[in-house]
């Protein structure tokens, strides 16, 4: 099943983008080829761009505190394993403390690295990191892979707390939803959302053998899914095929 996720607000959209970038970074850094490490470095710069949002750190800390309050309200419930609850609350506390002790925005310390910033200023230019433009960077790419990975460990350390916090918040959010089977009739599904609840994330699974692409839209009142199919012209066209979907609304 292919999983698609749709955020209902800008904060969750930012978290998903960061998660995507951190996942890519985790795939690229362990590899050996200099080209993989070039794109890993580009990914670090993308993370820095997203993390530069003024209110990101405060939003993450508020969400960590909110989740902690929600979980603590379950104490004394016989259906809740206290040991597991203590573990998760401890993780939330650890992330909050680490973020609170980190000065400035996530990754801000990297902006003091002139060598990294010289690469960042040219990496968005087509071909801008050629050896004749950045000979020092080209020389770094010729180092053995283990040395380059040691450098990445040092560069990514200031981003580790943000990565851990976003991962934990999204994990808790996803676990809060219950999947349900729904049917998209003639290529379209629509559902009115219950009043009094604020959903933050929609998760949709679809059988890849159907070769359908869902176009998802939603707001606090309603969600809508339109099934599309990619034809030989590489363009998406609306499909009239009915298909079963697995829908999860997370709040």
Label the structural class: alpha+beta
The helix-strand sequence is EHHHHHHHHEEEEEEE
Taken from the alpha-carbon principal axes, the silhouette is globular
Quantity of strands, as a count: 8
Which whole number gives the mean pLDDT?
Answer: 93
Largest sheet: 4 strands, antiparallel
Proportion of strand residues: 15-25%
Structure keywords:
single chain; 251 residues; alpha+beta; four-stranded antiparallel β-sheet; 8 helices; 8 strands
Would you mind describing this structure in some detail?
With 251 residues, the chain is an alpha+beta fold. The protein is built from 8 helices and 8 strands, in the order βααααααααβββββββ. The protein has helices spanning 10-28, 34-51, 56-72, 82-101, 114-123, 135-141, 145-156, 160-175; strands spanning 2-7, 180-184, 188-192, 201-206, 213-218, 222-230, 236-238, 243-250. The strands form 2 sheets. A 4-stranded antiparallel beta sheet has the order 1-4-8-2. Helix 1 crosses helix 8 and helix 3 (56-72) packs across helix 8 (160-175). It starts with a strand and ends with a strand. The model has no long low-confidence stretch (mean pLDDT 93).
